[in-house]
Amino acid sequence: MSQSRPSLVSLRASLRSAVEESELEALIGLLEPDERTGAQQLRLQAQRRLEAGRAERDRIARLLELRDELTLRGARGIAGVDEVGVGPLAGPVVAAAVVLPQRFSLHGLDDSKRVRPARRESLSAEIREIAIGFGIGEVRVEEIDQIGIYQAALEAMRCAVKSLERTMTIDHVLVDARTIPGVAQPQTSIIKGDQKDASIAAASIVAKVYRDRLMTTLGHRYPAYGFERHMGYGTAAHLSALERMGPCPAHRRSFAPVERAERLATRRTAQPSLGR
After folding, report:
1. For residue 96, which of 49, 56, 151, 203 is within the disulfide window of CB 3.0 to 4.6 Å?
2. Residue 92 · residue 155 · CB < 8 Å
C-alpha cells in the first residue's frame, strides 16, 4: 500500500502557520515529490515566502553594518536619531532617538516615508516594545518661529537624545544627515540615514507616528484645516483653507504661505465696509 499523503487542506494550514525558515524548508521538502497540482502550487508559495524572508533578513543585516562595527569597537548604547516635520506649515517638529537590541525582528523596517501608514503604526508599536530605550523630542510652533526650522529640528534631536539619556547610557549617536549640537557622545552623520541604518529608520518611524497623532489631535481642535489628513503640509486643500480663514494658533507664522495668509486676513479685517 502506498503511504497516504497529507490533504491539501492540512498542507495549506501548515503553510499559513509556518514562521521559521526551518518550517518552510521542511514543508518544501515534503511537497517536492508530491505531483498534485495543488501541492506544487503550495510548494511555489512556500519557496517565494522563504526567498522573501531571506532577502528581508539580508536587507536588515545591511542596515545594521555600521552599528555592528561600532559594537565590535566596544560601543554599547548606539542610538539612531531622526526628525520629522521640517516641511509642514503647521504643528511641531518632532525627533526620536532609538537604541535597538542586538537581535530583533522588525519586518519591513525602513525610512518612515517608504512604509505604508498602517504598517508604520504597527512598526512603531513593535519598536517601542523591543527597544532597549527610546526618547522623544518636540519643539513647538512658537519656538520654531523664534529660532527657525533648521535650529528647531536640531533642538528636537538634542532633546530626544537627552530624554533617552535619562533611561540609559549612550556611547554613540547615528544621525540622519546632521550633527546635533549640545550632545557629548561621538556622532556619525549618514546621508539618507533613514534608508541606510536600522536604528535611524526606527527613529524615523517612532517620530513620524508620534507627530501624526499630535496633528490628528490638532485636526480635532481646528477642524476647518484638515490637519489629520495632510499633517500640516502645504497641500492645495490646506492652502485654500489658509487663504479663506487665515492661520490658526497651530500654524508657523515664520513660513511664507502662513505669513502671506495672515497679511490677507488682516487686510480683510481692516477693510472698511462699503456703502457708507
Report:
1. 203
2. no
Neighbour order of strands in the sheet with 187-190: 133-139, 93-99, 78-84, 172-176, 187-190
* Distance between CA atoms of residues 193 and 58, nearest Å: 18
Within 8 A by CB and 6+ apart from 53, the residues are 21, 24
Cα–Cα distance for residue pair 117/176, rounded to 1 Å: 21
The residue among 9, 14, 15, 6 whose CA lies nearest residue 44 is: 15
Q: What's the pLDDT tens digit per position in 91-102?
A: 999 999 999 999
Q: Strand 93-99 to strand 133-139: parallel, antiparallel, or no bridges (unpaired)?
A: antiparallel
Grid cell 502550487 is found at 41
Alpha helices, H only, the chain: 8-17, 21-31, 37-63, 65-72, 117-130, 141-147, 149-165, 193-196, 198-221, 227-230, 236-245, 256-270
Cell for 107? Answer: 519586518
Contact 83, 151 (CB under 8 A): no
Q: 65, 187, 56, 207: which is closest to 128 by C-alpha?
A: 207
pLDDT tens-digit readout, 170-220: 999 999 999 999 999 999 999 999 999 999 999 999 999 999 999 999 999
**Residue type for position 128:** R
Q: Do 76 and 139 touch, CB atoms closer than 8 A? A: no
Residue that has been written with the C-alpha cell 505604508 in this structure: 116
| CB of 185 closer than 8 Å to CB of 199 | no
Instruction: Annotate 8-47 with DSSP letters as a single string.
Output: HHHHHHHHHH--SHHHHHHHHHHHTT---HHHHHHHHHHH
pLDDT reported for residue 276: 40
User: What is the rounded distance in angstroms from the CA atom of residue 139 to the CA atom of residue 211?
Assistant: 11
Q: Is 106 helix (H, G, I), strand (E, B) or coil?
A: coil
